[in-house]
Amino acid sequence: MTKKTTFLSVAFILVSLSMLCQNLATQMLNVTLSPFASYMWNSKTLGGLLTSFFNIGSIVMAFLSGPLIQKIGKKLSIIVFALLYAGATVLFILMPTETVSMGARVLQGIAKGVITVACASVVAEVTPDEQMNQGMGIFGLGSTAAMAFGPMLALNLVGPNNNYPAMFAGCAVIAALGAAFAAGIRYTPKASKQETVTDEKEYSGVWKLIEKKALLPAINHTIFFASYACVLVFVTVYAQEMLQLSSSQISLFYTAAAVTMLIVRTFAGKIADTIGELAIIIPGHIAIFALLMILSFFCKEPGPLTFPLFILCGGLYGVGSACVQPSMNAIAIVDSPAERSSIANATFYFMMDFGILFSSSVFGQVIDKAATPAAGYLITYLCSAGICVFSLLLAVTTLNRKARKRRSVQ
Questions:
Q1: CA nearest 35: which of 239, 236, 247, 299?
Q2: Which end of the chain has a smaller Cβ tally under 10 Å, C or N?
Q3: 329-376, pLDDT tens digit by residue?
Q4: For the segment 57-94, what is each residue's pLDDT rounded down to a tens digit?
Q5: Which of 198, 59, 30 is nearest to 117 (CA)?
């Protein structure tokens, strides 16, 4: 009788904990930097730019991280760049100026780009292909826990007295803890799916840095991420200004998101492995579309249903992100050569960051320049809903099994 393989190894658990620290630090900053910019410099545009600069660094390093990780190793990459992330966070305390803050965000983005790709590459190495959706889903629980506790922790550390230094200090300690977890990672690399190493001529020039077979799911996820990144960046300040909700009420949005992520990820990966990724990707898109429509029309003014609908939006956010990202990431990995798993992950994550870069920079200006804040948020959420529909159509036509099979023989 053949022994069933499992992806739950010590290396898998440690790398998941390391990624949890990265996600927790990132979530803490995501929900506080826009209010921080409003508090320090009275500018939502600058709040968006702090996110944009982060993603510029992340995009550049995610693009270059594949070869870097292959050269110095996944484990060392996680350790070094987790410490860089922690050091950059301390700059917000020591020199909280506009220029230094944007520079610190670039450094954090660089660190995040490498850490994310390196951690996902370790997961790809220690997870059997036939369990890749489940492995990626469980690995993604780190973002679920971060979604549940990161905003709550950050908002409580800031408190009513705007104690941002305490929040930044806590964030730096958590980022450094990720390096400690990474130090214990040990595993044997997975054997290649192919008998021979990929043709070097096929991967010359820029294709040394980009995995062709991961490109379509990466582009599709970038578009999808752009459709709801505006929620990630602006939902805290939106809830404060437009819905007049307290910090404790706002934190429950992320708790609702985390709970639904946890529930969905317990079964979504197995469904995707069994009957196909689109069975999960399609409901995920529908959830995000519904979220954006509710924010557009039902949450724009305080009322008796405002808080319940806001919590419902948190749940829909969790469903959408839990369904789509792990499945598209699994497609990118499984469809690519095993020896280029780091490049495939780098391709996926470097493309993904374009989504939030677009949303944070463009929609921040839309909100600032609109006739009223309500009009700015309405335009932002309606445009995002349209992007979500386009992403769904692209996924259905390019990520179905027949289309993937045709590309695999090319």
A1: 236
A2: N
A3: 889 888 888 777 777 877 887 777 677 777 777 887 888 888 888 888
A4: 877 776 777 778 888 889 999 999 999 999 999 999 99
A5: 59
What's the burial of 33, exposed, middle or buried (CB within 10 Å: 0-12/13-18/19+)? buried
Is the separation of the CB atoms in 373 and 241 below 8 Å? Answer: yes
Q: Domains of the chain by range and CATH?
A: 10-188+208-408 (1.20.1250.20)
Residue 164 and residue 89 in contact, taking contact as beta carbons nearer than 8 Å: no
Distance CA 355, CA 230 (A): 9
In terms of Cβ atoms closer than 10 Å to its own Cβ (0-12, 13-18, 19+), residue 375 is: middle
Tokens for 215, please give them. 């490109």
The terminus-to-terminus CA distance of the chain in angstroms comes to 37
Distance CA 244, CA 340 (A): 49
Residue 304, φ and ψ in degrees, nearest 5 = -65, -25
pTM: 0.72
Phi, psi dihedral angles at 248 (to 5 degrees): -65, -35
